[in-house]
Design a protein that fits this description.
CATH topology of one domain: Butyryl-CoA Dehydrogenase, subunit A, domain 3
Strand content: 25-35%
Radius of gyration: 45 Å
Largest sheet: 6 strands, antiparallel, barrel
CATH architecture of one domain: Up-down Bundle
Number of helices: 8
Length: about 525
């Protein structure tokens, strides 16, 4: 349970000890009950807590860093490139007056600029694609998709016809191999008891005779199948049977070839007949092997045609139905991704250029054309035309958020909080300055406009805007409490209060805290206030 107490633990402990001492002396019990009730009521805040319900809505979270500093006379601002490279241009000389944003020096940056252009092209491409998806298909696009689908269907039918023809050819080749090439080695080859000639090996002889019987049965069934085969009756099982039949015929021929290679001329067989057997079996093996290759090729073409047919049909359907909301969101996400890439490329390009952070006078130019510089080399120094600037020290925990050029609001103690002066971050010292044993970083800010009310030595309260995020979940800090070491908020769901763990981000100037995860838009957050 989470309790907000008005008294510290030590204070409560002291009070309780005092009451117990009184009880031991006077043994009064009823007053004790009353006193304990009063203390408990007080410790829990009584009825002084008020409940505020906040419905979570997307807000713009402005992250700020607040520092206190002094108004001082404008000093030199030393500027260096944010990346190493070769100096390609120096656009100013000592004594030149420059305006904020003027380019002062440039490194060789053709690659960086090319990357910017490439990323910009991607953004333009994805932006055009998003517009196209939102607009829906054009009539000419639909017509093109329909023509492609019809062409793919025609190619599929042609591929099917070729495959059917190859299956029939495979049967014809196998039948010819059996009738014209194999049967000459048998007596009664087309009966139930074929007998192969001139083989003394009984086992081999029996195997080859059994294979002849099975080959005949296979071809009989295959013939019936191919006689009724057409594009319309073709099925995957027909192709599977054809492959199996060809494999059976190939194995039969391989066995015969091995057997015939051992035949010798004798009184019954002349050498001419033996040679004819060998040549005919070899030719049959070649023909069946060719049939297998042709069938495999036709099958591959057929499968590709099926894939293309289905793809083109799906694309046509997409054109006809238009984009779904999910596709629009997906394309919008792609556009955001390319925009982020473009921003990154622009940031890398910007690091090759030194620009004036404010209006001022160039006091030093420490680089030369063609010189190779690093991020540690001072390049150009200038002083502000504004006359005064703010010198402050940013804590180690906040310095990573601060960079040159960020806007800031300033109030001077002399004029109160209602009078606001605008400023920008002009310089951040890369080296720490230790104050009271704590590392800080000297940061200088320039006033945007000259104002006669500004005097040297005035205390300046500065709020630097370091980031701005749209669509962020923000709640008051008092909505958070710790439970089991985790940050928790209480939400109201169907009239009941439920605690949710959350992950927090930064805190803005109003004291509100960013919720990175754990809350959803529309959640009702309970805030207890005194």
């Amino acid at each position: 349970m989470y309790i907000r107490c008005n008294y510290s633990y030590q204070n409560m402990k002291s009070r309780f000890s005092s009451f117990m001492s009184v009880l031991k002396k006077k043994r009064v019990y009823m007053p004790l009950i009353v006193i304990i009730a009063i203390i408990t009521f007080t410790s829990r805040g009584g009825n002084s807590d008020t409940v505020e319900r906040i419905t979570v809505q997307p807000e713009t979270f402005v992250q700020e860093v607040s520092v206190t500093g002094k108004v001082v006379a404008a000093e030199n601002v030393d500027m260096a490139f944010e990346t190493a490279g070769r100096v390609a241009e120096i656009k100013v000389s000592i004594g030149d007056q420059v305006k904020k944003g003027d380019t002062l020096a440039v490194l060789s940056n053709g690659d960086a600029w090319g990357n910017v252009l490439q990323r910009q092209a991607r953004v333009d491409e994805e932006s055009a694609r998003l517009q196209e998806v939102r607009r829906g298909p054009r009539a000419e696009d639909v017509n093109i998709a329909r023509a492609e689908a019809e062409g793919a269907l025609s190619s599929y039918k042609q591929a099917t016809q070729v495959l059917v023809d190859e299956i029939k050819d495979a049967y014809a080749v196998s039948d010819d191999a059996l009738r014209s090439k194999i049967d000459q080695l048998y007596t009664n080859p087309r009966t139930a008891t074929p007998e192969i000639i001139s083989f003394d090996n009984y086992s081999l002889k029996k195997t080859l005779e059994d294979q002849r019987i099975r080959a005949g049965e296979m071809l009989t069934q295959w013939e019936r199948q191919t006689n009724s085969l057409s594009v319309d009756t073709y099925t995957a099982s027909v192709l599977q049977d054809a492959r199996k039949n060809l494999t059976q015929m190939r194995d039969f021929l391989n066995g015969l070839s091995s057997a015939v290679s051992g035949l010798q001329a004798n009184g019954t067989l002349t050498q001419t007949i033996v040679d004819k057997y060998r040549n005919d079996i070899s030719a049959a093996r070649t023909a069946v092997g060719g049939a297998i290759t042709s069938l495999t090729s036709a099958e591959l073409t057929y499968k590709n045609a099926v894939t293309t047919r289905d793809t083109k049909a799906e694309q046509l359907q997409i054109k006809l139905s238009g984009a779904t909301s999910e596709e629009i969101l997906a394309q919008a996400a792609k556009l955001k991704s390319t925009q982020a890439d473009l921003q990154s490329a622009r940031a890398a390009y910007a690091k090759t250029i030194i620009t004036a952070p404010f209006d001022g006078l160039i006091t030093k130019v420490d680089v030369k054309l063609g010189q190779t510089v690093s991020t540690q080399d001072n390049a150009i120094s200038m002083i502000s035309s504004a006359g005064y600037e703010i010198e402050s020290f940013v804590s180690e925990s906040d310095i990573a958020k601060v960079s040159v050029g960020q806007p800031a609001k300033v109030t001077l103690d002399a004029y109160g909080k209602e009078v606001i002066f605008k400023a920008t971050v002009g310089e951040v010292d890369p080296a720490e300055t230790v104050q009271d044993g704590v590392s800080t970083y000297k940061t200088k800010l320039q006033f945007v406009e000259n104002d006669p009310r500004i005097r040297s030595g005035m205390t300046a309260n500065t709020t630097i805007q370091t980031a701005e995020k749209a669509g962020t979940v923000i709640v008051p800090q008092e909505a958070l409490f710790l439970e089991g070491g985790e940050k928790v908020v209480t939400v109201e769901v169907d009239g009941k209060r439920v605690n949710k763990n959350v992950v927090t981000g930064g805190i803005n100037a109003e004291g509100k805290i960013e919720i990175v995860s754990g809350l959803n838009i529309g959640d009702v957050v309970i805030v207890l206030k005194k």
